[in-house]
Design brief:
This protein has about 220 residues and is mainly beta. The chain has helices at about 5-15, 95, and strands spanning about 20-30, 35-40, 45, 50, 55-60, 80-85, 115, 135, 145, 155, 160-165, 170, 175, 185, 190, 195, 200, 215.
Length: about 220
């Protein structure tokens, strides 16, 4: 057998060996944290025909963390990422974890897939990406929790914000709480009474004490 024929035969056999490939979520089960995923790259037959691979079911989805603490986030249909394939059958492991039984002699098979969300093509790259510290945010960045490399921490829900500055000062929608506890704000109200321009009742000349403030 010629070297060229051997290479061609080996290449065709390797097409059945799955390692990793980009893909996206079709359906997500939040209770089981399993997804049905779609491979994101067509396969080409020996005749040159492009085929869309069938979906893969019961795929564990990665959420960073351990047994005591985890980081969880929303998964929606269309979310893209990387599908990786175990070198051994994981049917037993998906039920028990630990050192599981290996019921089938299966190697690098599509049935043994895991999904890592977050890998993105240019069409869904993160809007307003800031290469500074660590940040969790909504798609448009309006809602976010941001720990900056300067030491500042910023939280916003899109309607208001809180900033813990590097020096310990807190800024809440423009009202400043200094490290000594004093507050600087355009206006402060107590029970709907303005701290800036309220009036007092019972005012008479002399050394007496006025009554309580009124609007």
């Amino acid at each position: 057998m010629s070297t060229g024929l051997l290479r061609a035969s080996f290449r065709e056999m390797m097409k059945g060996v799955y390692t990793s490939v980009p893909g996206h979520v079709r359906v997500f089960d939040a209770d089981l944290q399993r997804a049905q995923v779609q491979v994101g790259v067509q396969t080409i037959t020996v005749e040159g025909v492009a085929i869309e691979p069938p979906p893969i079911a019961d795929v564990p989805v990665l959420f960073l963390g351990g047994t005591q603490y985890s980081t969880i986030h929303q998964i929606d249909p269309g979310d893209e990422g990387l599908i990786v394939f175990s070198q051994r059958c994981v049917d037993g492991w998906k039920q028990t974890g630990g050192v599981a039984t290996n019921p089938l002699a299966r190697f690098h098979d599509t049935h043994d897939a895991f999904f890592i969300p977050g890998f993105r093509p240019l069409s869904t790259r993160i809007a307003g990406f800031a290469n500074d510290g660590i940040r969790m945010q909504s798609r448009d960045g309006g809602q976010h929790v941001w720990i900056k490399s300067s030491g500042e921490i910023e939280v916003s829900n899109g309607a208001g914000y809180i900033r813990l500055m590097a020096d310990g000062t807190v800024n809440i929608n423009g009202a400043i709480i200094n490290t000594d506890g004093t507050i600087e704000a355009p206006n402060v109200t107590f029970n709907n009474i303005s701290g800036k321009d309220h009036r007092h009742s019972g005012v008479e000349p002399g050394s007496g004490t006025s009554g309580g403030p009124t609007n």
